[in-house]
Design brief:
about 10% strand, 3 domains, two-stranded antiparallel ribbon, mainly alpha, Dna Ligase, domain 1
Length: about 350
């Protein structure tokens, strides 16, 4: 009898030990990554690839805990998204997070770029979707129309900033989110400032895109905006070189020449008065607010400084402007810039 009890005790101890080990593998703090890690599951990933990716970020690899937890949670199918693996977390808690699709958002930077193609490429690098998917949506006339824009005005819908969103967001939902951010940006205060200028939001975006293209130096942008508003009030041609470059579609041009100025395009502000049909790039927040809060000045002319600092010389009279331009042209020639 004593031998039987001893055997039973040994078996019970072993059973408790094995059960405890199984429980530890599933519920214990088995994630030994040094800091929070993230796994990215795309639309092609299944439970097996989830296992592979999860074990890549944990040391030692708790294979048994994964197999037991996945079976207990009846995991199957696809769980696309970005998920956090906290240091010391249990396998069960991590898999439950994945199964319940409790993603960790990413910070997506929407940049101020020249074209929709550039935007698609930059955004796609930060999300699960590829650039082709994004580009298809960004060039869809039906999508633009549903949001109240067209091909010319669509770049003005995007407000460059950093946005928190899920890694597996669809291209369609991404664009819808950008429309909401545009609506939030154009609050009553900004709408009233645009109204006082006699401009629509789209026209503000168009002028802001020209200001951004003229200068990357934010403190100078309100002055440039004031200059262009002065020209508009006087019925003068805007004569902005970046609009000519946009019309030509050649962004490698560093020096706009007379032959370039002849391009027949509504975006050529040397030929057509007023603003172009739409933005020549996605305008920045600094550019938009520079227009809405422009400097009240008398300037009508501007020319890049001859020191190539990125800032400009401003002039009230054409004679002053010609003197500034001669210095800049001389500097271009000296550097062999054509």
């Amino acid at each position: 009898m004593k031998k039987v009890l001893l055997i039973l005790l040994i078996l019970l101890t072993a059973l408790i030990g094995v059960g405890g080990y199984f429980a530890y593998c599933m519920y214990g703090a088995v994630m030994n990554n040094e800091e929070t890690a993230y796994i990215y599951l795309d639309r092609d990933d299944d439970v097996d690839s989830l296992k592979t990716k999860l074990l890549e970020v944990t040391q030692p690899s708790p294979v048994l805990g994964f197999d037991l937890s996945a079976k207990l949670l009846r995991m199957k199918g696809n769980y696309k998204g970005r998920y956090a693996v906290e240091t010391g977390a249990s396998m069960m808690s991590v898999l439950r997070t994945v199964r319940n699709h409790l993603q960790s958002p990413v910070n997506v930077v929407v940049p101020s770029v020249r074209t929709m193609g550039d935007l698609a490429a930059r955004v796609a690098k930060q999300l699960m979707i590829d650039s082709t998917e994004v580009a298809q949506v960004l060039t869809s006339d039906s999508v633009m129309s549903s949001l109240g824009f067209d091909r010319q005005t669509f770049p003005g819908m995007f407000i460059p900033n950093t946005y928190e969103m899920y890694w597996d967001v669809s291209a369609e939902n991404l664009v819808q989110r950008m429309k909401k951010e545009n609506d939030n940006f154009w609050n009553d205060t900004r709408k009233e400032k645009a109204r006082q200028l006699g401009l629509t939001a789209n026209q503000v975006a168009t002028l802001a895109s020209i200001v951004d293209s003229e200068s990357a130096y934010n403190p100078e942008k309100p002055r440039i905006a004031g200059l262009y508003l002065n020209r508009m009030k006087k019925g003068m041609l805007l004569q902005s070189d970046p609009t000519v470059i946009y019309a030509l579609g050649d962004f490698t041009i560093r020096r706009v020449l007379n032959k370039h100025l002849a391009v027949d395009s509504p975006y050529n502000t040397y030929l057509y008065k007023g603003l172009p049909p739409g933005p020549i790039r996605i305008p920045s927040i600094a550019g938009l607010d520079a227009v809405l809060n422009h400097e009240d000045n008398n300037y009508l002319y501007m020319c890049a400084k001859e020191d190539f600092s990125g800032s400009h010389n401003f002039a009230v009279t054409y004679a002053e402007h010609q003197a500034n331009a001669r210095r800049y042209v001389k500097a271009l020639n000296e550097r062999g810039i054509k």
